Amino acid sequence: MRICRPTYPRSGRLRRAPRAHLAGACLALALALAVALGGCGTGDHASGTRSGALTVYSSLPHAGVSARVADAVAAGERLALADAHGRAGGRPVRLVELDSAAPGGSTWDPAAVEANARRAADDPTAIAYVGELDLGGSAVSVPVTSGADLLQVSPADGLTALTRADPAEPEALPESYYPRGRRNFVRLVPTDAEQADALVDWDSEGGAQRLAIVRDDRLFGRELAAEARLAARRRHVTVTGVEEARRAAADYRDLARDVAARTPDAVIYTGLGDPSGDRALAALGRALPGASLYGSSALALSPGGGQAPRADVLKPAAPASRYGRRARQVLRRLAAQRGASVSPEALYGYDAMRLVLDALDAAAPHAGDRAAVVREALRPRPRRSLVGREPVAATGDTAAPRFAGYRRTDGRLVFLGVRRAP
Question: Percent helix, strand, coil in the chain (nearest 5)?
Answer without folding.
Answer: 40, 20, 40
